[in-house]
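note to self: dont lose this again. the chain is below, predicted strucutre after it. 469 aa total, dont forget to put it in the shared folder this time
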Amino acid sequence: MTTGAITQTPERAGTGTRVAPRGVLFAVVAVALFMSSIDSTIVATALGTIHRSLHASINWAGWSITIYSLGMVVSLPVSGRISDQFGRRKVFFCGVALFTAASLACALASSIFLLIVFRAIQAIGGGALQPSAAGIVAASFGKDRDRAIGLFGTVASGGQVVGPVIGGLIVGYLSWRWIFFVNVPIGIVLLWAMMRVIPESRLGTKSRVDVRGLMLLAGFVFAATFGITQIGNRGTTFVDPIFLAPVLVGLVLLVLFVFHTLYSAQPFIPARLLKARGFAVMNIQNMGWGGVGFGMATLAPLYAEQRYGLNPLNAGTLLAARGVGSLAVGAMAALALRRTGYRMPLAFGFILVAGGMAMMAIAPHWGITPYLWLAVGAGITGVGNGAANPASRNACLQVAPEEVAAISGLRQMFIYIGIIFTVSTVTAILNRSPHPGLTQAHIMWVAVALLLLVMLPLVWRVPEHKGNW
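---
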């Protein structure tokens, strides 16, 4: 990954782009991220309805979430690199356009397999948004970029609040297809606004995109996930070829990826970053955080439906409760980072998420209704999420602050790898379980143990920093 000075082009002839106030620019970028965040939570809300409507098993319905995460794994580091090289606004514009078109295709899908294909395309567009948005904001906000980028988590939390409510209403009164239709008018307005207010920015030098490394990593994740999905089918055992073959292929691709990364001239995860203090620790945490903090949360509505029989609207608003908790502290945590540093909010956030998840795993007490009990637990996990996210994001970006877009893409890639393996593994287990609600409660206890026994001790290996970067 080659660095260089940022070149800013506030006005481009023939595009109508003007130098807009920073608040207006941030608002346009935030709406795009908000749209992507709403989409992920809406799909989680509609998971049970999709699996019934398209006559698909729950583990294949889960692929509508898994394939989106897999597409993100591929597109995030690529978009981070090419946005630095060819221009952040160009990549951001293409991402919104592709996301909007793919949303329309998802809405018209006639089978679970078509939906999975279109969701993969949608992910490529969505994956272009976060890295290029980070680059746009970093180029425009100067010394305040740490706070502005830290607020991205608050934007995502807002999507978590609105998405489940809208999703529950849509699924309850219209059809799951409308959860994708809603993106189309938003995307069209965004495309118009972006061309008017977002200036172009890029790094001054060029570098090669490591397509081979990305394909090896994506192949490993896809093959392993496919094998896990197959073991979720009743009657399939660990010695069946339909499970063994993809898993063995995945292991071979993983070995090839490791060798490629170590010996390639320009791997997409540069050797100098692997050697950077705290980079490996942060991305181990990002992968675990993706699985425990986001993957398990994505399946919360399914848990509420299967264990307590809640309807889609009430089940979906559990994600809204989580979003409210995250929104309540996310902005404050981002603005306080210069004083708190990274370790304290990370530790505080992990402990709260573990506590909220433990509450959701146990049965309601003291006459409290299941919905209220789950909503309080989800809200506690949201507070923890809001506390930890800004610190997690900025600790990674500080490794190479001149390459914000690329580092942001890598961070999100590791988070989505964690989401992929969590969603595919949990849905495979649930598909074989005679009591999926109780089974998911037991899985939550495993997640609590991972948070407290693995991720919390790693916090003290995160490089500490106070002040801006």
